[in-house]
Task: inverse folding
């Protein structure tokens, strides 16, 4: 997970003349006037924000309290901005944004043009972190316009740097590099070495996205040298993580791990949770590629714990705010109730004085009635206690079960293929994976056969599958683990690579594993699957399926032509069958359905065998059919389970259907595969707005 781009957050317009921390503390001990104290606290924050961020935060909080007590509005805005900088660097962006907007309000009221632009710049950075790029560009351009008018060169460099980050995220790489060069040029003329390093780091990120990793490494190293000389630990950490990711991408794992060790020391030194998360993510991927699955799983667990920690910190803050508000409202209601109780008591005393002598008998009757009511109340309390006890037991068991399932999810995710490994061989690909519950009965599987090496991966042979197990949730997850284990055994240990033969072996393995006998009382669990073998060198595709078909989308050679010749598909069984049986099979189940057209694209459905992986007592058991297809460059293929098409939703609460699914796929063929993933995900969410997800979802798409 590359930590690309350091977003510049200007401290403000206070004088930051280079001094030592000791001299500032000595000056502070002399008890100078408040405004001088506030200036000293500001410079102490600037000195320590890189090497001791917690100490820097303490100085800013102390100064903010002093400024609020003295009603120094300029300093109130200034230290709100500094605290925003601190929390942004810690990765707590919602807290940072809260402080920035407080600062913006103060400087707008003061009509301070320079500082107004600074806060606009910092807010723009936060929106970039939140991937709200339109808002980010709006705030940054406002800041740049103001800074150009006042001629603030240093601030202009900061904003150009941030615009470079934004354009990089928009994938407008030329604009991004041009912005970073503007920033670097201004900083070098002014002798701002930190700014120069930030621009170099960000330029390197763009070269990474332009697929020039060696140029990126050189830029990162230049930036790391400057950060180290300037004692900016956060900047050094970012550079070393980025260098490690470059070597990871180049499969130079020793160099990758060496740089990560340097990163780890720096991240621990400043307690950077974002930095540690990046380190654990890269290490988990590296050890998985080195087949050291024990270490890979250990770092996966560290990632999960750290993500939980970051989430819990944010939740704790929100809970504390709600608790404070609740306590305040509770006290107000208590006071109101006490006042009402006193009024009621006084009225009751007056009433008793009036009726005491006349209604003694009635009073005795009331006492008896109170006794009966109290007795009923006691019985009701006992019943409520028993009910609460039963509820507590159920709630405790529910928490235990949920915790177990969450842990099972981590195990299942660790077993699934690394999406980055798939993209190494198929850069134009995606996997849409949406479990109905915490764990899933759908799974995807991938294996690279006879990998010819990093330089010749375009000649590798790949196996890729999308499977749908019986059930979902925990039962489905158990089946998915059985399926994954059997596939690894069949391919990696037995060396069987023909798709139809793999499915024959997989079916036999499931029947054996589940002890299926075909009796009505026995297990009938199994799975549906679509499995492909792709030769990247010759573009020959072999496919076999159990109920789950394959979709092939091909672009027409001439615009306006209705369709293209259907792909040549040759069918063979995985075992020998008679010509008479083969003829009956082809008549009963043709290889493809009628092609579907949406100019300039044609979708061909390659049908699966109508039998599951598992015992099948309705029909005679038979071998699976192997389909061989010669692909063309630019062809797009889709493997999927039935969850997407069978989902109920829309305005009339109907199924999405395979027809609508095919039409959706044809409508997005002009988009890159990453954009197709986003579009399919959004389409599914829009369709299910008023409904619950009914089944697990798995859709795999790749373009050759």
Result:
């Amino acid at each position: 997970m590359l930590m690309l781009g350091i977003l510049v957050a200007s401290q403000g317009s206070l004088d930051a003349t280079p001094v030592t921390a000791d001299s500032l503390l000595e000056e502070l001990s002399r008890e100078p006037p408040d405004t001088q104290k506030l200036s000293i606290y500001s410079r102490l924050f600037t000195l320590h924000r890189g090497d001791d961020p917690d100490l820097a935060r303490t100085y800013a909080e102390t100064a903010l309290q002093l400024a609020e007590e003295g009603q120094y509005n300029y300093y109130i805005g200034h230290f709100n901005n500094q605290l925003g900088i601190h929390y942004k660097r810690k990765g707590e962006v919602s807290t940072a944004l809260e402080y920035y907007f407080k600062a913006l309000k103060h400087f707008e009221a003061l009509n301070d043009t320079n500082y107004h632009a600074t806060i606009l710049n910092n807010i723009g950075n936060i929106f970039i972190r939140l991937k709200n790029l339109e808002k980010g560009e709006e705030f940054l351009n406002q800041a740049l316009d103001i800074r150009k008018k006042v001629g603030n060169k240093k601030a202009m460099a900061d904003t150009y740097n941030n615009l470079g980050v934004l354009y990089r995220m928009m994938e407008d790489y030329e604009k991004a590099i041009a912005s970073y060069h503007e920033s670097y040029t201004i900083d070098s003329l002014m002798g701002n070495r930190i700014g120069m390093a930030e621009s170099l780091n960000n330029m390197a990120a763009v070269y990474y996205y332009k697929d020039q990793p060696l140029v990126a490494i050189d830029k990162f190293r230049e930036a790391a040298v400057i950060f180290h000389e300037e004692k900016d630990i956060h900047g050094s950490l970012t550079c070393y993580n980025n260098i490690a990711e470059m070597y990871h991408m180049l499969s130079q794992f020793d160099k990758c791990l060496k740089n990560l060790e340097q990163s780890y020391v720096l991240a621990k030194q400043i307690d950077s949770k974002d930095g540690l998360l990046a380190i654990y993510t890269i290490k988990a991927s590296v050890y998985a590629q080195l087949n050291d699955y024990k270490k890979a799983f250990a770092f996966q667990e560290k990632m999960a714990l750290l993500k939980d920690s970051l989430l819990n910190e944010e939740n704790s803050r929100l809970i504390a705010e709600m608790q404070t508000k609740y306590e305040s409202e509770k006290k107000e209601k208590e006071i109101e109730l006490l006042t009402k109780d006193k009024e009621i008591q006084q009225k009751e005393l007056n009433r008793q004085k009036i009726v005491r002598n006349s209604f003694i008998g009635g009073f005795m009757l009331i006492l008896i009635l109170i006794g009966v009511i109290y007795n009923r109340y006691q019985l009701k309390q006992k019943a409520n206690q028993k009910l609460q006890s039963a509820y507590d037991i159920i709630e405790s068991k529910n928490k235990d079960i949920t915790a177990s399932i969450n842990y099972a999810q981590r195990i299942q995710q660790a077993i699934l293929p690394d999406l980055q490994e798939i993209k190494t061989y198929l850069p134009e690909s995606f996997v849409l994976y949406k479990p109905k519950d915490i764990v899933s009965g759908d799974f995807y599987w991938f294996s690279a056969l006879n990998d010819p090496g990093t330089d010749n991966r375009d000649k590798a042979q790949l196996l890729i599958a999308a499977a749908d197990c019986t059930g979902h949730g925990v039962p489905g997850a158990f089946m998915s683990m059985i399926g994954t284990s059997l596939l690894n055994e069949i391919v990696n240990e037995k060396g069987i690579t023909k798709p139809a033969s793999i499915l024959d072996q997989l079916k036999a393995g499931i029947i054996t594993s589940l002890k299926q006998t075909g009796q009505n009382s026995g297990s009938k669990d199994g799975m549906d699957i679509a499995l492909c073998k792709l030769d990247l060198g010759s573009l020959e595709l072999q496919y076999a399926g159990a109920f789950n078909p394959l979709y092939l989308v091909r672009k027409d050679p001439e615009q306006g032509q209705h369709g293209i010749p259907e792909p040549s598909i040759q069918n063979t069984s995985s075992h020998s069958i008679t010509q008479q049986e083969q003829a009956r099979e082809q008549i009963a189940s043709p290889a493809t359905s009628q092609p579907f057209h949406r100019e300039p694209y044609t979708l061909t459905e390659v049908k699966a065998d109508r039998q599951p992986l598992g015992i099948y007592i309705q029909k005679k058991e038979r071998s699976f059919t192997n389909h061989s297809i010669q692909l063309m460059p630019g062809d797009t293929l889709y493997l999927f389970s039935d969850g997407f098409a069978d989902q109920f939703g829309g305005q009339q609460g109907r199924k999405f259907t395979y027809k609508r699914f095919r039409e959706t796929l044809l409508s997005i063929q002009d988009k890159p595969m990453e954009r197709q993933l986003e579009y399919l995900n959004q389409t599914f969410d829009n369709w299910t707005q008023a409904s619950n997800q009914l089944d697990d979802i798995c859709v795999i798409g790749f373009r050759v």
About this structure: Residues 5-13, 319-326, 559-564, 575-589 have pLDDT under 50 and may be disordered. The CA atoms of residues 305 and 612 lie 39 Å apart. DSSP finds 22 helices and 14 strands in the chain.
